[in-house]
Amino acid sequence: MRATTTSLDNNRVKINVEIDDAEMSDAIDAAAVTLAKQVSVKGFRKGKVPKNVLIANIGGPSVLRSEAIRESLPDFYSRAVADTLIDPIGQPDINIIDGEEHGTLVFDAEVEVRPEATISGQRDLRVTIPSPFVDESDVDAQIDRFRETDAILKDVDRPIVTGDLVTMDIHVQQIATDVEPLDMSDYMYTVGSGTITEGVDELIIGLKAGEELKLNGSVGGGVVATYELKLRQVKERELPALNDEWVEENTEWPTVDEMRESIRSQMRRMKIVEAQMSQRDAMLVALSELVAEDLVPDSLVDAETNERLHDLGHRLSEQKLNLETFLQVTNQTSDALLATLREDAVRAVRIDLALRALVRAEALEPTVVELDEELAKTAEAMSVAPELLRTNLRDTGRVVVFNAEVAKMKASRWLSDHVTFVDPEGVEIDHELLRTDQSEEPDA
Q: Quick check: 229 and 204 in contact, CB under 8 A?
C-alpha cells in the first residue's frame, strides 16, 4: 500500500491510496472464502466450493473482484489513516480512480480532520476553586448546631433576624389556575431556611409579630402564587453555655478545646477534598476558554452530543425509565435537554482542542517509551497482550487517537503543575496542599 495526503480547505484532507496486485490478490482470496460460505453450488458443501467453481457461478472474476473491493475498502482506508497519521473526525467520501477491473487499485478518500488550535496565556492561568481553608466562623457554626439540640425557645419582641422561629398563618392562592387555595395555621418557620418560597427570607427580616407579609412566588412547575403570611409569634433559640461540662455531657468530646480542634480538623479535610475534586474540571474549563468557540467543528459537537444522549438513554434504561418520563420528572422539554447536552458537548470539544494545543505549545508529545508504557497499562486493564492491542490500534486506524490520549494526559499533568489555583477570595492555594492525601487523619 502507498498512501499520500493533500490538504484541502475547511479542515479537509484528501488521501490518495494505491493497493498493489499482491495486496489485491489477498483481498480477492479473502472475498472468495467469504462468498464460498454464502453461495450454494450443487455438489459442494457451503464453504467447500473451489475458487474456480465459485467464480463460474457468481458471474466471473470481475464480480469477485468487485466484492473484494467492497469488503476491503474500509480496511484499506483504516490502514491509510494509520500510515498517514491523520486524525479524521467524520466519515470519508471515497472515490475509486482506477483498478476496478484489474491492476493496481487506486482510490481517493476526502475526510474532515480535527482542526489544530493555537493558544497563549497557558502559563498565566488563575483558576478559582472552593477554598480549602477553614474559617473559625465555620467551626463556630458547626458547634452551634450541636448546641441547638439543647436550645431553649424564648419569645422575643424585636425585629425578626435570620435563625428566628416564626409562627405564622399562611394563605397560598395560585395565579391563573383553578386550584383551591392552601391554608396553614400555626406554621413554624425557621427564617433563612428558604422552605416557603423565594423572597420570603429577605422580606421577613425586620418585621415583628403581628405584622403581615404578601408576595408572589413560585410553587414549582412554572406556577406562580400569591403568598399571604400573618406573623403570630417570634422565638429565638437560646443556646446552652459552651463549657467543658456541657461538652462532656452532650458530645463525644471531653472538652471545648478538643471539640473545636476535632471539628476544625474534619472540616479542613472535607474542604481540601472538595478543592481537590474540583481542581481538574476547573483548570480544564479555564484552559478551554483560550480556544475560540467558533473554531469548534459542528461535526465534533454533533458527535459528542449524540454520544451523551445515547449514554443518558442507556442509564435511564438501566433504571427502567424512558426519556419521556425523565423529561417529565425534570420538568424540561426535549429541546431544552438537547440544548444542555450540546452546551456540555461544546465545552468538552473545546477542552479536547485546548489540551492538544497545549501539547504543541509546550512540546509535550509523549516519547516512544511513554507510549509503550501506557499501551502496556491499557492492555493489562483490558486483559489482552500489548502486541495484540498494538495490532488492533493499527488495523482500525486508531493509533493517532491512542497517541493523542496519552499526550492529553501528559498535558493535563503539566497544567495541574503550572496553573495558579486561588480560592473565591483570590487567595493563592499551595499546590502541595492540593496533593495531600486526605484518606487518613492528618496530624493536627
A: yes
Name the CATH architecture for the domain at 2-112: 2-Layer Sandwich (3.30)
pLDDT of residue 185: 96
- Residues 351, 285: Cα–Cα separation, whole Å: 7
Please, what is the Cα angle at 195 between 193 and 201, to 5 degrees?
Answer: 55
Q: How far apart (Å, rounded) are the C-alpha atoms in residues 158 and 168?
A: 16
The per-residue pLDDT of the chain, averaged, comes to 92
Q: What is the pLDDT of residue 444?
A: 40
**Residue 277: what pLDDT?**
94
What percent of the chain stands above pLDDT 90?
Answer: 78
DSSP string, 122-136: GGG-EEE----PPPH
For residues 306 and 135, give the distance between their C-alpha atoms in angstroms, rounded to a whole number. 44
The four Cα atoms 33, 37, 40, 44 give a dihedral, to 10 degrees, of 70
Spatial contact of 338 and 374, defined as CB atoms under 8 Å apart: no
pLDDT in tens, 23-73: 999 999 898 888 888 877 777 877 778 888 888 888 888 888 999 999 999
Q: Is the dihedral of CA 71, 74, 78, 79 positive or negative?
A: positive
pLDDT of residue 320: 87
pLDDT of 228 > 50? The answer is: yes
Q: Phi and psi dihedrals of 170, rounded to 5?
A: -120, 135
* pLDDT at res. 41: 79
Q: Does domain 278-435 have CATH number 1.10.3120.10?
A: yes
Q: DSSP string of 350-377?
A: HHHHHHHHHHHHTT-PPPHHHHHHHHHH
Question: Domain residue spans in the chain?
Answer: 2-112, 152-238, 278-435
Same fold, 2-112 and 152-238: no
By CB atoms closer than 10 A (0-12, 13-18, 19+), residue 275 is buried
| pLDDT value at residue 440 | 61
97/18 Cα distance (integer angstroms): 10
8 Å CB contact between 30 and 64: no
Cα separation, 55 vs 65, whole angstroms: 10
Grid coordinates belonging to 174: 395560585
Distance CA 401, CA 89 (A): 11
Backbone angles phi, psi at 101, to 5 degrees: -95, -40
Q: In whole angstroms, how far apart are CA 298 and each of 99, 115, 295? A: 35, 12, 9
**Dist. CA 39–CA 327, nearest whole Å:** 50
